Amino acid sequence: MAVNVNRFLFTRILGHFPQQEMTLAFAYGSGVFKQIGNTNPDNMIDFVFAVDDPVSWHRKNMDRNPSHYSALRFLGPKGITVVQDRLGAGVYYNTLVRCEKRLIKYGVVSTSTLKSDLIHWDTLYLGGRLHKPVEIIKRTSDTKLFNAMRQNQWNALYTSLLMLPEQISEEYLFKCIAGLSYSGDFRMVFGEDKNKVHNIVKGNMTEFRKYYKRMLESTEHIYWNKKKRRIEQDRSPACLYSHMEQLPSNLKNEVVRLSGIKHSDVQEVFTILAREKACTDLVKQGVKNIVKSSTKTQSIKGIFTAGLSKTYVYSMKKLTKMWKGGKQQQQSKSS
Question: In which band, very low, low, confident or very high, does the pLDDT at 165 lie, cut at 50, 70 and 90?
Fold first, then answer.
């Protein structure tokens, strides 16, 4: 459920940026979708812009919006693109930008980098954001990008099913899916609201059902009872093997590495893990490892892309949310 925003506002904001190279633009986060315990109508709106030519896009954007950039702007558009592509998760964020009387944060990523993360889970940084409902503002007719977005959702569903028991509620599944990209994020220990995943899912159950409806209806080996809002899955070795075969390549590699099984044939490793039903913890740890690596480097990069003053302000906003979330959790436990 979008809150206190509409597509006209998104369109006006998008109009402040170069669009010729842009293949995808979406808005996400608490400034767009309702989150339990976070009802501030002026929450910062988060955007991601995928562009075919980052150097050209940054050149035009620096001409149009030079104040959005930190001191890194003196590197020029080519230097900015090097920072974007080679450090962290391949995305360059400008934060705490005032636009159309709202605070926004926007990340710029090359279309090719985004496609790769969606399909293979190289970093799961942007792929994880698209596991949750987002507001698509602009999308070109790039069928490969559309297919990558769908593949990313399938990846999230199969990964979550491997991590869950035979019988679960819809809410439990969606929490697992929404939590994938937070599972190894050090900011969940210090810097983020501990109830974030619960608040995201609980406030947007209708959107999650719509987002995963076709997949839940067509996925083999599961039964979705829409009336009771329950899901049953077959966790036989054959089904576990089938799900593992559908995992994104980077996660497959992590699972094989963590298993410690010395075998050159990945399929044979999966057969052993499925037969012994030993894949659940390996999949969980594999996801954590992918997320942990990318969030640390991306956060360090963020200090430089935002600048020290904006980093301080942004961090204080996050810590305030974390403190409020912890206080609400204590109150719910005592009541």
Answer: very high
